[in-house]
Amino acid sequence: MLTTVGLLGYGNVGAGVAKLIKTEGTLIADKLGWPLKLAKCLVRNPKATRNFPPDPGLLTTDPRDVVGNPDIQVVCELIGGLEPARTLVLEALEAGQHVVTANKALLATHGLEIFKKANEVNRDVLFEAAVAGAIPVIRTLKEALTANRIQSLYGILNGTTNHIITRMSKDALTFKEALTEAQAAGFAEADPTADVEGHDAAHKLVLLSALAYGILPKLEDIHIEGITKLEPIDFAFATEFGYVIKLLAIAGLHNGQGSLEVRLHPAMLPAGHLLAGVNGVMNAVTIRGHASGDIFLSGPGAGMMPTASSVLGDVIEVARHHLSLESSLRPPILGWLNLKSDAVRPISETLLGYYLRLTVQDRPGVLSAISGILGQHNISIAQVIQRGQTELPGWVNLVMLTHQALENDLQKALDAARELPAVSDIRLIRVEESL
Predict the structure, then answer these.
(1) What pTM was estimated for this model as a whole?
(2) Residue 357 has pLDDT above 90, yes or no
(3) Among this protein's residues, is 204 annotated catalytic?
(4) What does CATH list as the number for 347-431?
């Protein structure tokens, strides 16, 4: 028996998959019961220099040599982006091939269409590598926690932003300094927008929400906020208050049973929380099930071999559980018979505590005026610090922690505070206490 694999794309991850199939072929065959065979690799330029050059006979520039090829059972989509990835995945499924992908943007955007097609033609779409690299969070949600009602899910899902945040926190670097350093070290792309603005992590959060709650949210329904506005002073104040700052992906049922909350933004966490100690390029996820309690998963969130490990794990799952069975009955791809696309709860209805840093004139009556506005909008102040001159002579930092309040009320209060002549800037970071 033999399982044949075709690759769409041969970048770092594709090269890693090819390398594992070749160098660990005996180990895979010992575990699976039969070998994997790499049949074809779609590339743009067959003559390009590669980290792990495949047999030249495996290379092709024609996607039809992979998609629809009756000699290939599993197609690994590793080209990224939305098109032609979407078209090729749908065509592969229609041709009777199983699909393994690392493309979180594709599934977050076109997941309903792709999963529907896979169910119609009785084929698999597996995507462990699309979320958190080598961390088996997809399989954990889909299989190990099937009997659980997932109460909450919190994640650090982007290694680039976590590295930048770590450097800003540990060494008081500015965002620009930390980003430049990350780019020089190869931890950030030349164009880091997808990472630092939160889009990459949001795509992953959409998929985790679907696995946990059977709802594939629309990206436009999610509050997405990146890390570009964070400043070293905020990390210093966070430490003083007993918190750390992370770019946090959050999904959970409102009050444990209501509508679904899905959001991604910088957040302050208690310094003793497990996620608070996840630094550098590492990723981590905490999952709270009603029966399992809290589960903590952490590991490399990206990279050639960690991601290739997850891709190949999915290929082996297809081979072991499906290609070896004479059965027309397959489990639902996301562990839910009916995947929905319900709108998620708007962040305006979320109840949270807040860290506020206001740049204000250093004169009597300013704190009283701001406190009055907050009080008029049902915002209660827990702690206040006024310290240090800013770059503007006569202006200081006024820092507040609030008790829990509705986001809608808080934003209205801040809009009113911005109208005060004595206020020049306001920075907000949400505080997550109930993880």
Answers:
(1) 0.86
(2) yes
(3) yes
(4) 3.30.70.260
